[in-house]
Design a protein that fits this description.
alpha/beta, five-stranded mixed beta sheet, about 400 residues, Glutaredoxin
Protein backbone atom coordinates (compact mmCIF):
# COMPACT_ATOMS: atom_id res chain seq x y z
CA UNK A 1 0.00 0.00 0.00
CA UNK A 2 2.75 2.42 0.92
CA UNK A 3 4.70 1.48 -2.20
CA UNK A 4 1.74 2.14 -4.48
CA UNK A 5 1.08 5.45 -2.70
CA UNK A 6 4.72 6.47 -3.17
CA UNK A 7 4.59 5.51 -6.84
CA UNK A 8 1.41 7.49 -7.36
CA UNK A 9 3.07 10.55 -5.88
CA UNK A 10 6.09 10.05 -8.07
CA UNK A 11 4.04 9.64 -11.22
CA UNK A 12 2.07 12.79 -10.47
CA UNK A 13 5.30 14.74 -9.91
CA UNK A 14 4.84 16.39 -6.55
CA UNK A 15 7.05 19.47 -6.71
CA UNK A 16 9.10 20.85 -3.85
CA UNK A 17 10.06 24.49 -3.39
CA UNK A 18 12.51 24.42 -0.50
CA UNK A 19 10.40 22.60 2.14
CA UNK A 20 7.06 23.55 0.60
CA UNK A 21 5.06 20.81 -1.12
CA UNK A 22 3.54 22.10 -4.36
CA UNK A 23 0.43 20.25 -5.55
CA UNK A 24 -2.25 20.49 -8.25
CA UNK A 25 -5.71 19.17 -9.13
CA UNK A 26 -4.42 15.66 -9.76
CA UNK A 27 -2.48 14.98 -6.59
CA UNK A 28 -4.15 17.25 -4.00
CA UNK A 29 -6.22 14.42 -2.51
CA UNK A 30 -3.27 12.03 -2.23
CA UNK A 31 -1.01 14.58 -0.58
CA UNK A 32 -3.47 16.45 1.63
CA UNK A 33 -6.39 14.10 2.32
CA UNK A 34 -4.74 10.64 2.20
CA UNK A 35 -1.41 11.25 3.92
CA UNK A 36 -2.51 10.99 7.57
CA UNK A 37 -0.84 14.35 8.16
CA UNK A 38 -2.02 17.82 9.06
CA UNK A 39 -1.60 20.10 6.04
CA UNK A 40 -1.42 23.89 6.14
CA UNK A 41 -2.42 24.82 2.59
CA UNK A 42 -1.95 28.08 0.73
CA UNK A 43 -4.29 28.63 -2.23
CA UNK A 44 -2.66 31.25 -4.43
CA UNK A 45 -2.44 32.72 -7.94
CA UNK A 46 0.77 33.64 -9.75
CA UNK A 47 -0.48 37.14 -10.59
CA UNK A 48 -1.52 37.93 -6.99
CA UNK A 49 0.61 40.71 -5.43
CA UNK A 50 -0.32 39.76 -1.86
CA UNK A 51 0.68 36.15 -2.61
CA UNK A 52 4.12 37.30 -3.77
CA UNK A 53 4.64 39.44 -0.68
CA UNK A 54 4.07 36.52 1.68
CA UNK A 55 6.45 34.10 -0.10
CA UNK A 56 9.41 34.69 2.31
CA UNK A 57 7.17 34.22 5.37
CA UNK A 58 5.62 31.03 3.94
CA UNK A 59 9.06 29.62 3.09
CA UNK A 60 10.23 30.41 6.60
CA UNK A 61 7.27 28.48 8.02
CA UNK A 62 8.04 25.48 5.80
CA UNK A 63 11.68 25.51 6.91
CA UNK A 64 10.64 25.76 10.55
CA UNK A 65 8.32 22.72 10.33
CA UNK A 66 10.46 20.63 7.95
CA UNK A 67 11.35 18.14 10.68
CA UNK A 68 7.83 17.90 12.17
CA UNK A 69 6.69 14.55 10.77
CA UNK A 70 2.94 14.98 11.09
CA UNK A 71 2.67 18.53 9.70
CA UNK A 72 3.30 19.61 6.12
CA UNK A 73 3.25 23.03 4.45
CA UNK A 74 1.52 22.85 1.07
CA UNK A 75 0.61 25.27 -1.70
CA UNK A 76 -1.55 25.07 -4.80
CA UNK A 77 -2.08 27.52 -7.66
CA UNK A 78 -5.88 27.54 -7.40
CA UNK A 79 -6.15 29.84 -10.40
CA UNK A 80 -4.78 27.02 -12.55
CA UNK A 81 -5.99 24.06 -10.47
CA UNK A 82 -9.59 25.23 -10.61
CA UNK A 83 -11.26 21.95 -9.64
CA UNK A 84 -9.73 22.11 -6.16
CA UNK A 85 -10.30 25.85 -5.96
CA UNK A 86 -13.97 25.35 -6.78
CA UNK A 87 -14.31 22.49 -4.28
CA UNK A 88 -13.16 24.71 -1.41
CA UNK A 89 -14.89 27.90 -2.67
CA UNK A 90 -11.65 29.83 -3.12
CA UNK A 91 -12.78 33.32 -4.11
CA UNK A 92 -9.72 35.40 -3.24
CA UNK A 93 -5.95 34.99 -3.01
CA UNK A 94 -4.15 34.06 -0.95
CA UNK A 95 -6.52 31.86 1.05
CA UNK A 96 -5.00 29.69 3.80
CA UNK A 97 -6.69 26.60 5.21
CA UNK A 98 -5.57 24.10 7.82
CA UNK A 99 -6.54 20.49 7.08
CA UNK A 100 -6.23 18.76 10.46
CA UNK A 101 -5.45 15.06 10.27
CA UNK A 102 -8.37 14.36 12.60
CA UNK A 103 -10.87 16.60 10.75
CA UNK A 104 -9.91 16.64 7.06
CA UNK A 105 -13.45 17.29 5.86
CA UNK A 106 -13.69 20.51 7.89
CA UNK A 107 -10.63 22.69 7.17
CA UNK A 108 -10.01 25.71 9.40
CA UNK A 109 -9.56 29.11 7.79
CA UNK A 110 -6.51 31.16 8.79
CA UNK A 111 -7.47 34.81 9.24
CA UNK A 112 -4.43 36.39 10.90
CA UNK A 113 -1.57 38.47 9.55
CA UNK A 114 0.38 36.76 6.80
CA UNK A 115 3.63 36.57 8.74
CA UNK A 116 5.66 33.65 10.06
CA UNK A 117 4.95 34.29 13.74
CA UNK A 118 1.20 34.28 13.15
CA UNK A 119 1.39 31.09 11.04
CA UNK A 120 3.46 29.33 13.71
CA UNK A 121 1.16 30.41 16.54
CA UNK A 122 -1.85 29.24 14.53
CA UNK A 123 -0.35 25.74 14.17
CA UNK A 124 0.57 25.67 17.84
CA UNK A 125 -2.95 26.64 18.91
CA UNK A 126 -4.73 24.35 16.46
CA UNK A 127 -2.71 21.13 16.66
CA UNK A 128 -0.02 21.74 19.30
CA UNK A 129 2.72 21.60 16.66
CA UNK A 130 5.86 23.61 17.19
CA UNK A 131 8.61 24.13 14.64
CA UNK A 132 12.22 24.95 15.20
CA UNK A 133 13.30 28.56 15.38
CA UNK A 134 14.65 29.83 12.07
CA UNK A 135 16.11 33.16 11.15
CA UNK A 136 14.45 35.36 8.56
CA UNK A 137 15.46 34.60 4.96
CA UNK A 138 18.09 36.98 3.66
CA UNK A 139 16.85 39.63 1.29
CA UNK A 140 20.36 40.60 0.16
CA UNK A 141 20.50 40.35 -3.65
CA UNK A 142 23.54 38.68 -5.25
CA UNK A 143 25.05 41.19 -7.70
CA UNK A 144 27.55 40.33 -10.45
CA UNK A 145 28.80 41.54 -13.84
CA UNK A 146 25.83 40.03 -15.63
CA UNK A 147 23.04 41.70 -13.65
CA UNK A 148 24.37 44.86 -12.01
CA UNK A 149 23.17 47.23 -14.72
CA UNK A 150 19.69 45.71 -14.80
CA UNK A 151 19.40 45.71 -10.99
CA UNK A 152 20.94 49.05 -10.16
CA UNK A 153 20.33 51.37 -13.13
CA UNK A 154 16.93 52.60 -12.02
CA UNK A 155 16.63 56.38 -11.64
CA UNK A 156 14.08 56.01 -8.85
CA UNK A 157 16.09 53.58 -6.75
CA UNK A 158 19.29 53.71 -4.72
CA UNK A 159 21.65 50.80 -4.03
CA UNK A 160 23.79 49.74 -1.07
CA UNK A 161 26.31 47.13 -2.16
CA UNK A 162 28.63 45.01 -0.02
CA UNK A 163 31.83 43.61 -1.55
CA UNK A 164 33.16 40.43 0.08
CA UNK A 165 35.61 37.62 -0.52
CA UNK A 166 35.27 34.06 0.69
CA UNK A 167 38.81 33.48 1.98
CA UNK A 168 40.83 35.14 4.74
CA UNK A 169 38.21 37.74 5.62
CA UNK A 170 36.65 37.27 9.05
CA UNK A 171 35.34 40.84 8.95
CA UNK A 172 33.41 39.96 5.78
CA UNK A 173 31.37 37.44 7.76
CA UNK A 174 30.39 40.01 10.38
CA UNK A 175 29.58 42.65 7.77
CA UNK A 176 27.46 40.17 5.83
CA UNK A 177 25.41 39.56 9.00
CA UNK A 178 24.97 43.33 9.36
CA UNK A 179 23.79 43.47 5.73
CA UNK A 180 21.23 40.76 6.46
CA UNK A 181 19.93 43.01 9.27
CA UNK A 182 19.91 45.95 6.87
CA UNK A 183 17.92 44.01 4.28
CA UNK A 184 15.36 43.01 6.93
CA UNK A 185 15.04 46.60 8.13
CA UNK A 186 14.36 47.84 4.59
CA UNK A 187 12.45 44.86 3.19
CA UNK A 188 9.39 47.10 2.76
CA UNK A 189 11.42 49.77 0.96
CA UNK A 190 12.77 47.64 -1.89
CA UNK A 191 11.10 49.96 -4.38
CA UNK A 192 13.48 52.64 -3.08
CA UNK A 193 16.73 50.74 -2.51
CA UNK A 194 18.50 47.54 -3.52
CA UNK A 195 20.58 45.85 -0.80
CA UNK A 196 23.16 43.72 -2.62
CA UNK A 197 26.36 41.73 -2.27
CA UNK A 198 29.20 41.22 -4.75
CA UNK A 199 31.32 38.13 -4.05
CA UNK A 200 34.90 38.02 -5.26
CA UNK A 201 34.95 34.22 -5.18
CA UNK A 202 31.33 33.56 -6.08
CA UNK A 203 29.85 31.49 -8.89
CA UNK A 204 29.36 34.53 -11.17
CA UNK A 205 32.05 36.88 -12.61
CA UNK A 206 32.51 40.15 -10.70
CA UNK A 207 35.87 41.49 -11.97
CA UNK A 208 34.26 44.26 -14.05
CA UNK A 209 31.99 45.37 -11.19
CA UNK A 210 34.81 45.46 -8.64
CA UNK A 211 37.04 47.38 -11.05
CA UNK A 212 34.29 49.91 -11.79
CA UNK A 213 34.08 50.83 -8.10
CA UNK A 214 37.83 50.51 -7.51
CA UNK A 215 37.45 47.76 -4.90
CA UNK A 216 40.77 46.34 -3.68
CA UNK A 217 40.13 45.72 0.03
CA UNK A 218 37.44 43.66 1.72
CA UNK A 219 34.87 44.11 3.03
CA UNK A 220 33.88 47.31 1.22
CA UNK A 221 30.52 49.04 1.03
CA UNK A 222 29.35 51.35 -1.76
CA UNK A 223 26.23 53.53 -1.91
CA UNK A 224 24.94 54.29 -5.43
CA UNK A 225 22.82 57.40 -6.06
CA UNK A 226 19.56 56.82 -7.94
CA UNK A 227 20.73 54.25 -10.44
CA UNK A 228 23.82 56.19 -11.58
CA UNK A 229 26.77 53.78 -11.45
CA UNK A 230 29.14 56.71 -11.93
CA UNK A 231 27.74 58.53 -8.92
CA UNK A 232 28.64 56.55 -5.84
CA UNK A 233 30.06 56.97 -2.37
CA UNK A 234 32.30 54.54 -0.50
CA UNK A 235 30.78 54.06 2.95
CA UNK A 236 33.28 54.91 5.70
CA UNK A 237 31.18 54.32 8.83
CA UNK A 238 30.87 51.39 11.20
CA UNK A 239 29.58 48.23 9.56
CA UNK A 240 26.98 47.34 12.18
CA UNK A 241 23.31 46.86 11.42
CA UNK A 242 22.37 49.90 13.51
CA UNK A 243 24.82 52.26 11.81
CA UNK A 244 24.00 51.00 8.31
CA UNK A 245 20.27 51.53 8.92
CA UNK A 246 20.95 55.02 10.26
CA UNK A 247 23.04 55.83 7.17
CA UNK A 248 20.32 54.68 4.74
CA UNK A 249 17.65 56.60 6.65
CA UNK A 250 19.74 59.75 6.27
CA UNK A 251 20.28 59.17 2.55
CA UNK A 252 16.71 58.21 1.68
CA UNK A 253 14.79 60.27 4.20
CA UNK A 254 13.23 57.06 5.51
CA UNK A 255 12.38 56.32 9.15
CA UNK A 256 13.17 52.64 9.60
CA UNK A 257 14.33 51.00 12.81
CA UNK A 258 16.56 47.90 12.74
CA UNK A 259 13.48 45.72 13.36
CA UNK A 260 11.88 47.01 10.15
CA UNK A 261 9.17 49.00 11.92
CA UNK A 262 8.59 52.73 11.49
CA UNK A 263 9.64 55.28 14.06
CA UNK A 264 7.42 58.14 15.21
CA UNK A 265 8.77 60.57 12.59
CA UNK A 266 7.68 58.42 9.66
CA UNK A 267 5.09 60.21 7.53
CA UNK A 268 6.45 63.69 8.30
CA UNK A 269 8.34 65.42 5.47
CA UNK A 270 11.21 67.38 7.07
CA UNK A 271 11.44 70.08 4.38
CA UNK A 272 7.71 70.80 4.74
CA UNK A 273 7.85 71.48 8.49
CA UNK A 274 7.79 75.28 8.29
CA UNK A 275 5.10 75.30 5.60
CA UNK A 276 2.95 72.78 7.48
CA UNK A 277 3.17 74.73 10.73
CA UNK A 278 2.01 77.89 8.95
CA UNK A 279 -0.75 76.13 7.03
CA UNK A 280 -2.22 74.38 10.07
CA UNK A 281 -1.74 77.36 12.39
CA UNK A 282 -3.49 79.86 10.10
CA UNK A 283 -7.21 80.54 10.20
CA UNK A 284 -9.23 79.37 7.20
CA UNK A 285 -9.10 82.71 5.37
CA UNK A 286 -5.33 83.13 5.66
CA UNK A 287 -4.90 79.42 4.95
CA UNK A 288 -6.67 79.81 1.61
CA UNK A 289 -4.42 82.72 0.75
CA UNK A 290 -1.35 80.64 1.63
CA UNK A 291 -2.36 77.35 -0.04
CA UNK A 292 -0.74 78.11 -3.44
CA UNK A 293 2.65 78.65 -1.78
CA UNK A 294 2.17 75.50 0.29
CA UNK A 295 1.41 73.43 -2.83
CA UNK A 296 4.43 74.85 -4.63
CA UNK A 297 6.64 73.79 -1.70
CA UNK A 298 5.05 70.35 -1.74
CA UNK A 299 5.83 69.97 -5.46
CA UNK A 300 9.53 70.39 -4.66
CA UNK A 301 9.54 67.30 -2.42
CA UNK A 302 11.17 64.21 -3.91
CA UNK A 303 8.12 62.03 -4.44
CA UNK A 304 10.32 59.02 -5.19
CA UNK A 305 11.23 59.11 -1.50
CA UNK A 306 7.97 60.51 -0.10
CA UNK A 307 5.39 59.18 -2.55
CA UNK A 308 2.74 58.19 0.01
CA UNK A 309 3.46 61.15 2.25
CA UNK A 310 3.02 63.69 -0.58
CA UNK A 311 -0.35 62.14 -1.48
CA UNK A 312 -1.56 62.34 2.10
CA UNK A 313 -0.34 65.91 2.57
CA UNK A 314 -2.29 66.88 -0.57
CA UNK A 315 -5.42 65.13 0.70
CA UNK A 316 -5.20 66.90 4.05
CA UNK A 317 -4.74 70.25 2.30
CA UNK A 318 -7.98 69.74 0.39
CA UNK A 319 -9.88 68.85 3.56
CA UNK A 320 -8.64 71.91 5.45
CA UNK A 321 -9.34 74.24 2.53
CA UNK A 322 -12.85 72.78 2.28
CA UNK A 323 -13.35 73.60 5.97
CA UNK A 324 -13.83 69.98 7.04
CA UNK A 325 -13.12 70.54 10.73
CA UNK A 326 -13.95 66.95 11.70
CA UNK A 327 -11.52 65.35 9.26
CA UNK A 328 -8.46 64.92 11.51
CA UNK A 329 -10.37 63.36 14.40
CA UNK A 330 -12.37 61.10 12.07
CA UNK A 331 -9.23 59.88 10.32
CA UNK A 332 -7.49 59.38 13.64
CA UNK A 333 -10.30 57.18 14.95
CA UNK A 334 -10.48 55.21 11.69
CA UNK A 335 -6.77 54.40 11.66
CA UNK A 336 -6.64 53.52 15.36
CA UNK A 337 -9.37 50.98 14.67
CA UNK A 338 -7.52 49.67 11.63
CA UNK A 339 -4.35 49.05 13.63
CA UNK A 340 -6.36 46.88 16.01
CA UNK A 341 -7.61 44.77 13.10
CA UNK A 342 -5.56 41.55 13.05
CA UNK A 343 -6.29 40.95 9.36
CA UNK A 344 -4.39 44.08 8.30
CA UNK A 345 -1.02 43.04 6.87
CA UNK A 346 2.31 44.64 7.80
CA UNK A 347 2.58 46.68 4.59
CA UNK A 348 -0.79 48.33 5.16
CA UNK A 349 0.09 48.85 8.83
CA UNK A 350 3.10 50.88 7.76
CA UNK A 351 0.85 53.12 5.68
CA UNK A 352 -1.60 53.48 8.58
CA UNK A 353 1.19 54.30 11.06
CA UNK A 354 2.63 56.85 8.65
CA UNK A 355 -0.73 58.62 8.41
CA UNK A 356 -1.31 58.44 12.16
CA UNK A 357 2.07 60.04 12.81
CA UNK A 358 1.19 62.95 10.54
CA UNK A 359 -2.26 63.35 12.10
CA UNK A 360 -0.70 63.43 15.59
CA UNK A 361 1.76 66.06 14.38
CA UNK A 362 -1.06 68.16 12.89
CA UNK A 363 -2.87 68.06 16.24
CA UNK A 364 0.32 69.37 17.87
CA UNK A 365 0.49 72.23 15.34
CA UNK A 366 -3.12 73.23 15.88
CA UNK A 367 -3.65 76.76 17.22
CA UNK A 368 -6.79 78.62 18.37
CA UNK A 369 -6.99 79.96 14.81
CA UNK A 370 -6.99 76.57 13.08
CA UNK A 371 -10.69 75.80 13.35
CA UNK A 372 -11.99 79.32 13.77
CA UNK A 373 -15.20 80.02 11.86
CA UNK A 374 -14.66 81.87 8.55
CA UNK A 375 -17.41 84.40 9.26
CA UNK A 376 -15.80 85.30 12.59
CA UNK A 377 -12.44 85.71 10.86
CA UNK A 378 -13.88 88.00 8.17
CA UNK A 379 -15.81 89.99 10.76
CA UNK A 380 -12.63 90.43 12.83
CA UNK A 381 -10.68 91.50 9.75
CA UNK A 382 -13.33 94.08 8.84
CA UNK A 383 -13.34 95.46 12.38
CA UNK A 384 -9.54 95.63 12.32
CA UNK A 385 -9.57 97.57 9.05
CA UNK A 386 -12.23 99.91 10.38
CA UNK A 387 -10.21 100.51 13.53
CA UNK A 388 -7.07 101.28 11.51
CA UNK A 389 -9.05 103.67 9.33
CA UNK A 390 -10.49 105.45 12.37
CA UNK A 391 -7.04 105.82 13.89
CA UNK A 392 -5.83 107.53 10.73
Amino acid sequence: MRLSFALSLLSLSVAWASNIIVVNDENFDDVVLNSDKTSFVKFYAEWCTHCKKMIPEWEKLADSFAEVDDVQVVEIDADKSRAIGKRYNIASYPTLKLFRADALSDPVDFEGQREYEYFANFLLNQVGAQGKKVGPPSKVVQVHDGNIEKLVENKDRYAMILFTREKDCDECIDTKKAFDELSQAFHKELDKIIIGEVKKNGDEPTDWTREMFGISEYPAVVFVEKGDLQKYEVYQGETTGTELVKYINTKLGTKRATNGLLDTQAGIIPEMEESLAKFIGYNIVDRRAYVSEFIENLKKVDDALFKNEVKYYALIVNQFIAGNNEYVEAEFAKFEQKLADKTVDSVEKDLVNMKLNLLKHIKELTTPETYRDANDVMKAKEESKKLEKDEL
